[in-house]
Amino acid sequence: MQNKLTIEKIYTVLGNGTQAVSAIHNDSLVERVVAVFDNETEELKAEHTLRSFDLEKFKQRFGVEENADPLMFNVYPVSPSDANFVLEYLDEPIAFDFGANAYFIECFSVE
Predict the structure, then answer these.
(1) What does the angle CA 22 – CA 20 – CA 28 come to, to the nearest 5 degrees?
(2) 36 near 45, Cβ under 8 Å?
(3) Which residues does 69 contact at the CB level (< 8 Å), separation at least 6?
(4) What's the average pLDDT block by block, 10 residues per block, for the chain (111 residues)?
(5) Whole-angstrom Cα distance, residue 102 to residue 84?
(6) The pLDDT of residue 28
(7) By C-alpha distance, which of 11, 14, 25, 110 is closest to 70?
């Protein structure tokens, strides 16, 4: 399931008081996933779709500052302490193995 985002412009106030503007197409869809990378080879092993995404809860959990990344478009590492939180939002549960893999919350546009 994809999380539809229909924002035309995002304004971010920078430290010097100016504003940066990012544009997103109205018909774009944003998909959020947990990406799994092999710790040894650093190759992408899998992507697990987040069935839902509570922006405010994720921002709080991952310590995202409002003016730094207001819509959480950046990549965020998932730590062992985040595993149970993330499992609540996955389409299908996964068995986290932090010894073998690195996990990240990622976001990308889908047309």
Answers:
(1) 10
(2) yes
(3) none
(4) 40 45 52 96 96 92 90 94 96 94 93 71
(5) 15
(6) 54
(7) 11
Q: Which residues, 6+ apart, have CB-to-CB distance to 37 below 8 Å?
A: 43, 44, 45, 101, 102, 103, 104
Torsion sign across C-alpha atoms 73, 107, 36, 93? positive
Give the pLDDT confidence score for residue 47 in this predicted structure. Answer: 96
What sign results for the dihedral spanned by CA atoms 83, 84, 85, 87?
A: positive
User: Distances in Å between the alpha carbon of 111 and those of 29, 58, 72?
Assistant: 6, 24, 19
**pLDDT of amino acid 6:** 38
Residues 58, 64: contact at Cβ < 8 Å? yes
Q: Taking the alpha carbons of 52, 58, 64, 67 in that order, is the dihedral positive or negative?
A: positive
Overall CATH class of domain 3-110: alpha beta
Entry field: residues in the chain: 111
* pTM for this entry: 0.74
Domain boundaries, the chain: 3-110
